[in-house]
Write a structure and sequence with these properties.
Distance between the termini: 12 Å
Largest sheet: 9 strands, antiparallel
Number of strands: 17
CATH class: Alpha Beta
CATH architecture: 4-Layer Sandwich
Order of helices and strands: HEEEEEHEHEEEEHEEHEHEEEEH
Radius of gyration: 20 Å
Number of helices: 7
Structural class: alpha+beta
């Protein structure tokens, strides 16, 4: 950890304590994180993805938008940590006193039995051919140690996960979220854009990308690729494709297909995002039916997990990512999220172990 990161980390943790709306993020391939903060006015709540058309700022969108989990847009007026002045009157709020009481032990809600029951429900729907694919996720809630620093966890993730988009953000509407995600939902600018299909999971083999993938993983990735291709074509967009090929994601690998395309203008990025979100990589097929099935049967609210997050700017550069491998940081607890794609051929133990591996992305930062 560099002296500058240590100094900046103290500022970031203080911004969280004072409830100032900000985001810091590191794009894959870049070394220096981007920082932004909204000092003046309240952050904007947006009622639909299409309402992001022509908007500029840092967007935090949930899996399902609701009054409790709105789409939030930070419209910054500060773009450097060196410009942050922590006077007493620079705060946007005060410390929260409504933290829920702690339970005994480290794991508050392991969800193990819930996951087994949900898996049975999901797999029955798949094997009776109601769906081609469903994504089942779970959360893990841990006691937050008093010395846990979200900022230090962010900087450690930047060092550890060089191929992922790493972010830390806070708004009064969302609370604190930290993540390390490999999946682009929309990236580009100046007419040249891209998105990806990312599905199928394997562990790295001695730190190297696996080259052999079984039928289940390839089929799962194929569903996501077909969906994205179809959604783009429905908007008159004819992408150039590359893949599928194995790609790094922390200690894991996924199959990835790149879709590159041009846009006549950038005024309707919200409409494009609405067509893509949620992809079968986090939802299922058929999309609308799978989405409703998950809401009714998964047994908990994903909140901002499997939504999307990042900077949107129709006149400049946009980098938006699906919010995977993430955690919500409350005053006394950390809630981690992970999931996996199910097909009719899926087996309980395999899918459980996949979520365990994905949770390690966040656990490694907690215990670092």
């Amino acid at each position: 950890m560099t002296p500058q990161n240590l100094a900046h980390g103290k500022i970031i943790d203080e911004l969280i304590r004072r409830q100032c709306s900000f985001a810091i993020y590191r794009i894959p391939g870049e070394e220096t994180p981007h920082f932004l903060m909204q000092r003046e006015g309240a952050v904007r709540s947006i009622d639909s993805i299409t309402a992001l058309n022509e908007k500029r700022g840092f967007v935090i969108a949930p899996f399902r938008a609701s009054e409790a989990c709105p789409i939030v847009l930070i419209e910054p007026d500060i773009f450097s940590l060196d410009d942050v002045v922590l006077f007493d009157d620079a705060v946007a709020g005060t410390d929260s006193d409504d933290a829920p009481a702690l339970h005994d032990g480290h794991s508050l809600h392991p969800h193990t039995n819930d996951y087994v029951a949900c898996f049975d429900t999901f797999i029955r729907a798949l094997r009776t051919k109601q769906f081609e694919k469903l994504v089942l996720s779970r959360s893990l809630t841990l006691e937050k140690k008093t010395d846990f620093s979200p900022a230090m966890a962010f900087y450690q993730a930047c060092e550890r996960y060089v191929h992922s988009y790493v972010y830390l953000c806070y708004t009064p509407q969302t609370g604190v979220w930290l993540g390390s995600t490999p999946e682009i939902i929309l990236s580009g600018g100046q007419g040249e854009w891209s998105t990806v299909a990312l599905a199928g999971t394997q562990s790295l083999q001695n730190g190297e990308l696996p080259q052999l993938w079984d039928d289940k993983n390839r089929e799962e990735q194929g569903y996501v690729s077909s969906y994205i291709r179809r959604q783009l074509l429905s908007l008159g967009i004819r992408p150039v494709e590359k893949g599928p090929y194995p790609a790094f994601a922390g200690a894991l690998s996924h199959l990835k297909t790149d879709f590159c395309f041009s846009l006549a203008d950038n005024k309707e990025l919200g409409h494009l995002l609405n067509q893509l979100h949620p992809t079968p990589a986090v939802c299922g097929l058929p999309k609308e039916e799978a989405y409703q099935f998950i809401l009714e049967n998964e047994g908990y609210d994903r909140r901002y997990y499997t939504g999307f997050i990042g900077w949107i700017d129709p006149a400049g550069r946009t980098d938006l990512y699906v919010n995977l491998r993430c955690m919500h940081i409350a005053p006394d607890r950390l809630t981690l999220y992970a999931g996996g794609g199910l097909l009719a051929s899926s087996e309980l133990e395999d899918e459980w172990q996949e979520t365990e591996k994905k949770l390690k992305t966040m656990l490694s930062m907690i215990h670092a």
